[in-house]
Q: What sequence folds into this?
């Protein structure tokens, strides 16, 4: 192996030297001085006599014309010079049998000898000083050529790895930008298919209790109908990769375990588009991608857990508040859905939608300071009572601001009683001064108050409440939000859900 | 954009050549610009042209876009001939 690599290197080095313009110029320069000279490059560190004879006969005019015994004597004497140059690893000058002059320069790198540069048929005997200059120049040219060769070798070796590394980095950026597992897993599958040039990818996560791998995302780019199969641990390639905690590779499949502290699942690729078998390089790349995927999956799982915890705390708080006026603080699913649908339609970001969801549950948390008799008073509030009620948004913010996850919901809670024309509270903000989430919340909470039981007003029908919202567009409510609200309310699924929740219709 | 027309542009041709030679690559405009030694803004525009021409696939997220090579084997062999 080492020997064949050396041979390959030697061949490439001589190819480059033959094409080297610096070496050609040097030969021309010294050729003029030596009047003339036959130059030759001997590619072998340990040449045979026949190699040398062939080379000299091709280059030396005197050798070509001479009789055979003279040729033999000539090549034998130069052969001795070559051996001497090899042994001393430095330039050796000689006089040939025709009383002409020449030299042999060994091409050396470290302690390795690759071949020789030779010159003969020179009518002028060249001084040792000139030959020293020649040796120094040639040495520089050979070193430069060797460096060029090493650089190009390095480029050939490192570039594909650098490109692969850059690919892994890009994948990392693409999969780290989402914490939604439902979005993340298909994204990992699609990116893996792009990189491995495969047709199908399946990501399975473990259900440790049932000793099964459950399919979470399967993408087949051949538009084949995809069957989501559960796999028993230890069975088939994914099951084996999981059990053994190492990649399982066949010609048309590659299963890579997703390993965090334990194995959490398996990502399996099937059928390369060029129908070639999966390679060790594919396995290496896929293993690196799997490491990135595990981090992203774990982050998404943790985020989901965190979100569940936050939502659990919010719902508990709402439940506590609801004991004071049942049905007031635990929002019905349909109102949450309306608020989120408006937010989506108005292109709120995922984070803003989350804030809207939290605020939809806790926007009236501050009513905890409102005495029961005020809260349940069926008649008009006195000025003093109304002043207490108007404090509830600020108190709501005081309650929720200690939960970091709810911080982004505070502007919605604080300003959901502001009115579009500036006549609301607590600050009398107008139009776009009111955060969009709060403008949405204003419409949805007013609608909810109209269609559900409240001590201070009679229940309106869905249609009547929608009409009132519409009539107050531009004064109490943002007209754009009202338009979107009416559009959402026209949806059959929303209408049915609401009727089911409010009136128990099936 | 017609594929023959695409090959008349040096930067488009260089990008296609890069992805043809590195078919497993998935990279951002900055990465591609580095590999082919061209200006990032020009590369970004060219990458989108190539997406429209279905030579590249854009994998978009909120933070960045990763571009990868087409999976269409007929198109790949056509490009192979054009590059030769």
A:
């Amino acid at each position: 192996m080492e020997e064949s690599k050396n041979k390959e290197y030697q061949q490439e080095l001589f190819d480059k030297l033959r094409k080297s313009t610096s070496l050609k110029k040097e030969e021309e320069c010294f050729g003029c001085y030596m009047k003339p000279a036959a130059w030759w490059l001997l590619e072998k560190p340990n040449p045979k006599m026949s190699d040398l004879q062939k080379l000299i006969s091709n280059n030396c005019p005197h050798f070509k014309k001479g009789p055979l015994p003279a040729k033999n004597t000539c090549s034998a004497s130069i052969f001795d010079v070559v051996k001497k140059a090899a042994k001393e690893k430095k330039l050796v000058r000689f006089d040939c049998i025709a009383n002409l002059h020449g030299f042999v320069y060994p091409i050396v790198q470290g302690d390795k000898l690759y071949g020789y540069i030779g010159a003969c048929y020179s009518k002028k005997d060249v001084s040792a000083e000139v030959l020293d200059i020649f040796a120094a120049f040639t040495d520089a040219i050979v070193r430069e050529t060797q460096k060029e060769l090493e650089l190009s070798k390095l480029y050939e070796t490192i570039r594909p790895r650098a490109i692969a590394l850059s690919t892994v980095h890009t994948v990392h950026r693409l999969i780290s930008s989402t914490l939604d597992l439902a979005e993340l897993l298909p994204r990992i599958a699609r990116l893996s298919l792009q990189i491995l040039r495969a047709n199908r990818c399946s990501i399975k996560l473990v259900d440790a209790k049932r000793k099964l791998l459950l399919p979470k995302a399967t993408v087949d780019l051949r538009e084949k109908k995809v069957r989501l199969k559960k796999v028993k641990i230890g069975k088939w390639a994914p099951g084996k990769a999981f059990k053994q905690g190492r990649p399982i590779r066949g010609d048309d499949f590659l299963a890579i375990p997703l390993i965090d502290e334990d194995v959490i699942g398996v990502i399996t690729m099937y059928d390369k588009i060029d129908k070639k078998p999966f390679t060790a390089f594919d396995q290496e790349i896929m293993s690196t991608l799997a490491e990135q995927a595990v981090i992203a999956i774990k982050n998404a799982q943790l985020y989901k857990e965190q979100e569940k915890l936050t939502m659990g705390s919010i719902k508990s708080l709402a439940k506590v508040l609801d004991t004071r006026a049942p049905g007031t603080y635990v929002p019905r699913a349909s109102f949450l859905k309306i608020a989120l649908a408006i937010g989506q339609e108005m292109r709120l970001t995922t984070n803003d939608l989350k804030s809207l969801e939290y605020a939809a549950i806790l926007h009236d948390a501050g009513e905890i300071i409102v005495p029961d008799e005020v809260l349940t008073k069926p008649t008009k509030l006195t000025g003093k009572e109304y002043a207490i009620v108007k404090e509830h948004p600020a108190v709501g913010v005081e309650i929720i601001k200690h939960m970091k996850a709810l911080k982004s919901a505070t502007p919605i809670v604080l300003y959901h009683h502001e009115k579009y024309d500036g006549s609301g509270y607590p600050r009398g903000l107008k139009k776009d001064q009111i955060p969009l989430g709060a403008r949405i919340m204003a419409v949805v909470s007013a609608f909810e108050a109209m269609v559900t039981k409240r001590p201070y007003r009679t229940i309106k029908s869905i249609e009547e409440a929608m009409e009132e919202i519409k009539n107050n567009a531009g004064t109490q409510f943002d007209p754009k939000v009202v338009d979107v609200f009416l559009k959402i309310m026209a949806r059959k699924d929303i209408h049915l859900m609401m009727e089911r929740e409010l009136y128990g219709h099936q | 954009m017609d594929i023959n027309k695409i090959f008349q542009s040096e930067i488009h041709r260089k990008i296609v050549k890069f992805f043809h030679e590195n078919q497993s690559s998935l990279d951002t405009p900055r990465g591609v610009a580095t590999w082919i030694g061209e200006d990032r803004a020009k590369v970004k525009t060219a990458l989108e042209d190539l997406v429209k021409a279905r030579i590249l696939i854009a994998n978009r997220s909120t933070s960045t876009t990763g571009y990868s090579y087409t999976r269409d084997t007929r198109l790949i062999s056509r490009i192979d001939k054009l590059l030769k």
Summary: The domain at 2-153 of chain A is CATH 3.30.450.240 (Beta-Lactamase). Residues 128-176 of chain A form the longest helix (49 residues). The CA atoms of residues 253 and 432 of chain A lie 56 Å apart.
